[in-house]
Amino acid sequence: MAEENKLSDVATDTAQLIQQAGEKTTKSVIQHTEKYHDAYTAIDKIVDSFWERVPYLCIALAVFLLFWLLTKVFKLFIAKTLTNRSYTRQNLVLVLNRVGSVLIMFVGFLIALVIAIPGFTPGQLVSALGIGSVAIGFAFKDIFQNLLSGVLILLGEPFRIGDDIIVNGMEGTVEDIQIRATFLRSPDGRRLVIPNATVYTSAITVNTAYQRRRCQFVVGIGYEDDEQKAKQIILDILNNNRNVLSQPAFSVNVTALADFSVNLTVLWWVDTTETGIAASVSEIQAEVKQAFYAQGINIPYPVQEVKVHRDDVATLPYQASPPDLTK
């Protein structure tokens, strides 16, 4: 009986210890739970608010996509309405496409924000960005200047895409005219990006504004040669060349009595849709050279004569023989 009582006491003590340990553990868990209760509550509220706004976010995304589709429809409408009409300017289509698309997308973005964010108004966006502040105005001065210049260039249309122009000492073919900058492809295959403000305020040479372009080069003949014969040879070459236009008339004139030659300036016009400037000049120059050679007309080059008198050679110090003038 005594042993049974001892076992019963041990069991009772063990149960009490387990109960006390459980109570301590429960208190500890409750204490830690109370510490993070506020965080859990905040996270739950955020999650609940997010799920409450999910339908509105989906609607806002759908509205934004709808306005994006409207920009595509707008561009298609402009292309079908204005393209291939005699009075339509190419850059006018670009202005309407780009400026109109940006405005449509901006309106769609504002509407999407109003739907997605409760209590949001466009006025709050303007206030947040500080568009009216002086600091932002100075920071975006160059951007706004290039933007306005790009619109004026597109509306004024001083040149078109595909034209060969020279602006601010840079030459190239116009690849694109964007709102911020104009893109050129240089003759050696490089891309030139010029800010629209620079393009708008600089003098521009449009090489391809007209189909007819004038070509010229200068050739010299010797003073002993007959310049009238040389002029007639060149005129015959120009008259027989199929790429040389008869109107405006071509000409050959004596323009300078140089130190070593009589210079003749050759002028003629070509149609750039038929041949290039460089190709025509190279062709005419090669024919002139061959004709002059066949007719015995000299094309001189600078020659210097050095004369040494015997008396001067004899008085040269420390020189036993005349200098070798062939070196």
Question: What layout of secondary structure does this protein have?
Answer:
Elements: H1 2-82, H2 90-116, H3 122-129, H4 134-139, H5 141-156, E1 164-167, E2 170-177, E3 181-185, E4 191-195, H6 196-201, E5 204-206, E6 212-221, H7 227-240, E7 251-257, E8 262-271, H8 277-295, H9 310-314
Antiparallel strand pairs: 1-2, 1-5, 2-3, 3-4, 6-8, 7-8
> Which ranges are low-confidence, i.e. pLDDT below 50, for 5 or more consecutive residues?
none
Total helical elements: 9
User: How far from one another are the termini?
Assistant: 141 Å
CA-based gyration radius: 44 Å
Give the amount of beta strand, in percent.
15-25%
Overall, the morphology is: elongated
Helix-strand pattern: HHHHHEEEEHEEHEEHH
Q: Which quaternary structure do these chains form?
A: single chain
Label the structural class: alpha+beta
Number of strands: 8
Largest sheet: 5 strands, antiparallel
Question: How is the largest sheet built, in terms of strand order?
Answer: 4-3-2-1-5
Summed over residues and divided by their number, the pLDDT gives a mean of: 79
